[in-house]
Amino acid sequence: MKATGVSARRRTFAILLLALPAGLIVATSVGSVALPVASVLASVLSHLGLTVSPSLPPAAEAILWSVRLPRVLLAALVGGGLGLVGAALQSLFRNPMADSGLLGVGPGAALGAVIAVQVGLQNVLLGLPLAAFAGALAAVFAVYALAHAGGRPSLQGLLLTGIAVSALAAAATSVLLVSAEEYRVRTILFWLSGSLEGRGWEHTRLGAAFILAGSGALLLVARPLDVLSLGDEEASSLSLPVHRTRMAIFCLASLVAGPATALAGSVPFVGLVAPHALRPLVGPLARHLLPASFLGGALLVVLADLAARSLNARIDLPLGSLTAFFGAPYFLIALRASEGRS
Amino acid sequence: MILLEARDLVVDRGRSHVLRGASLALHAGEALALVGPNAAGKSTLLRTMAGLLRASAGTVRLKERILSAWERDALARAVALVSAEDEGPATLHVADRVALGRYPHRGPFRPLTAHDHEAVDRALAQAGIEHLAARPLGTLSAGERQLAAVARGLAQEPEVLLLDEPAAHLDVGHQLALFAVLDDVRRRGVAVLAVVHDLQRAGAWAERMALLFGGRVIDEGAPAAVLAGPGAAEAFGVAIRAHRVAELDHPLYSFTGRSARP
Which residues lie closer than 8 Å to A33 by C-beta, 6 or more apart? Predict the structure, then answer.
């Protein structure tokens, strides 16, 4: 059993490490203007200084480098961040249904985005994502501060505070939404349903800075996360400063999930599906599950975004709806399977 | 030699005192059973002695040094606590769960060394669960899970092992296996203090027994003497009688209820 555990883990990582670059390249080559995979590869290699043969015509080169690549890379970053944060929060809350929604990040980002559109910030460079990020951070800060109002919060207290703050932000969003002018409502709805349409390098760079730094920091606290998953008392008796560790992980998770949500809107189920599918293959230890969930989440969102822009020739489908379309049935099937077993 | 000593502990939970001047000393290499009726404060005393709860008055000393003067990790290398509720993710393998007992030795970042892996293997062997090393926790029985929790405590390589009702919910076979493990641990020089609910089992296992009642240790000594004393009868509200059986080296006890509890 031990042998199959290790080999299943190695095989899973090998598959993910091959599938993600393959997915990135396919997603880059498919679109309204098809770019041959070989030319995409050659162009990327020449930009990396590895070859010197410019293989694409200038127009195609422009599509590849200023439209496709930043969007596909951002999809990978958003998906990876959401997958990894989902895995970390599931260990933190000792609940397989935990994800970044519990931080108040989603509704907070939505409120920030709605306010930005109301005051006309959506036409300013990075106005919408920065406002959404500010909203996400404000919500997380509110959860943190309110949970600490009566002393150190219990796990339950932190969870319920997150739910209450999320409900408040969602209520405020609805109020602003019904009082907004019609053309603004469309912009907001588009953002709320999740999308990567029109995202360029400025978005990708912003996302990369926060998501990669936050994910790396979460990987560093993999062992404390494992100790926390044993329960507060055992963790504390093993010399882990439980409260400080929990709040540090909470803040790092927000630092990843906040920008991911701010840049892509709501992309549900990635943080649940990626860890849930990979846990049986790589095990629950954070040093394995977190990186696997990053790779798995990245692959999921790259493919979902590919579907979002290629299933319908005329318009982009909402990315968040697509992840929900496959995420929700996946969960129902997984639930059935686990209930059938017990 | 006194290894861990609680003196005149007062611990409050909410507005009421749970401990009201409890004192208890644990000597190196001894097996001490802590008994008492429900809500006597047994778990509170154990957790306070492990440094998890703060006393509002009184002191706990480990090797004559007050507990709050110990670094957290140094304390966890000397004192391990195993409680009945110890759980872990269902998919976590037993060996990985036991290896987390090395956290006080390695901290968050330093990788485990060969010595750490030896300690984990030794802990699995002492708890008699090497054959379960690669099993996920979710597939174990309650008794096997409890042994895995004890193995985690042993992987800490402590000088003091504290256990809160380690045999709760276990069938008699697993109870015997567990207390045999604790005997073996004690013979290796580790001081073992266990809260034990089953007086019969406590009397058979322990060298010394401490009776906690109303937040104070009201009697301590050889199990047979404590259980025969007036304190035990008053604390549990029952009459306790010892019966000598020729082929056993410890007495069996019978309990008869009294109509009015004090």
Answer: A60, A63
